UniProtKB/TrEMBL annotation:
Subunit structure: Monomer.
Protein's GO biological process: lipoate biosynthetic process; protein lipoylation
Active-site residues, record numbering mapped to chain: C148
Organism from which the protein derives: Brevibacillus parabrevis
Residue(s) at site: Lowers pKa of active site Cys: K163
Protein name: Octanoyltransferase LipM
Listed Pfam families: LplA-B_cat
Miscellaneous remark of the record: In the reaction, the free carboxyl group of octanoic acid is attached via an amide linkage to the epsilon-amino group of a specific lysine residue of lipoyl domains of lipoate-dependent enzymes. The reaction proceeds via an octanoyl-thioester enzyme intermediate.
Length: 276
């Protein structure tokens, strides 16, 4: 069975978390590190936004700061995600890897099988729903909100008809980076306090829609699930979903050094985070 690297990093700043993902991508493209599955958390709790989002227009940056939260723009698309009571994963693998289909949508599906197996390992009746039809898209989408879990992907992971994971993907230097948020719990009021809306009425409508279409693990689990239990369930899930052996490892010194450079020159700068 093919071996991939499995890394659990310590809680990191928003800039470092995004920089580490990019550092792994770059060094994997150079053949210096193997395909990698990484799990991580955030210190402080952080609002991340998609690459194409307009930060000043869509995000209440004063409230983010007032709440003591971190803020960062991802290199991937999608909408705003509150990284708080959750586990973040990333998968980095070459586009030409024999297990990866050439199409973006199908590669997304293959990687997301790891998530599906992870939820099932926790005893949840998770399923992957194809959003091939407009009707299916509408079931999991709601208009206007900047929140990630309002935005449908190509395939949606759902439990009891509600979305349970939000993922995004980018391809650079011949490498796929897919990362996403696995919610254990969530403060919906906090998330929506960080977003701009034209009026309180619209905000309330969006919150109601969000609660109807998204759910956390601990809302549907028959018992509380800890962060460590989630890491174990999803590491096994990615191993079985990708049909590989995950070998526990650590970041290399080169990865950490490159990540620190990328954090300082890109992900911690206003030029990057407020660029749109």
């Amino acid at each position: 069975m093919e071996q991939w690297r499995y890394v659990v990093t310590e809680p990191m700043s928003p800039a470092m978390n995004m920089a580490v993902d990019e550092a792994i991508l770059q060094l994997h493209s150079e053949g210096k590190v193997p395909p990698t599955v990484r799990f991580y958390t955030w210190d402080p709790a952080t609002l991340s936004i998609g690459y194409f989002q307009k930060a000043i227009k869509e995000i209440n940056l004063e409230e983010v700061q007032r709440r003591g939260l971190g803020f960062v723009r991802r290199a991937t698309g999608g909408r705003a995600v509150l990284h708080d009571q959750e586990l973040t994963y990333s998968v980095i693998v070459s586009e030409d890897h024999p297990r990866m289909p050439s199409g973006v949508t199908e590669a997304y599906k293959i990687i997301s099988l790891g998530l599906l197996h992870g939820f099932q390992n926790l005893g949840l009746a998770a399923e992957m729903v194809s959003l091939a039809s407009e009707e299916e898209k509408e079931k999991y989408n709601s208009p206007g909100s900047s929140a990630c879990f309002d935005s449908p992907s190509w395939y949606e992971l759902v439990v009891e008809g509600k979305k349970v994971a939000g993922s995004a993907q980018t391809r650079q230097k011949g490498v796929i980076l897919q990362h996403g948020s696995i919610l254990l719990d969530m403060d919906v009021d906090l998330l929506f306090s960080l977003l701009h809306f034209p009026s309180d009425r619209v905000k309330q409508r969006m919150m109601d829609s969000f609660r109807q279409k998204a759910v956390t693990i601990n809302e549907v689990s028959p018992r509380p699930v800890s962060l460590q239990e989630a890491i174990e369930a999803f590491s096994k899930g990615f191993a079985s979903g990708l049909d590989v052996e995950l070998v526990p490892s650590a970041l290399t010194d080169e990865e950490r050094a490159l990540a620190e450079e990328l954090a300082a020159t890109r992900y911690a700068t206003d030029e990057w985070n407020l660029r749109r």
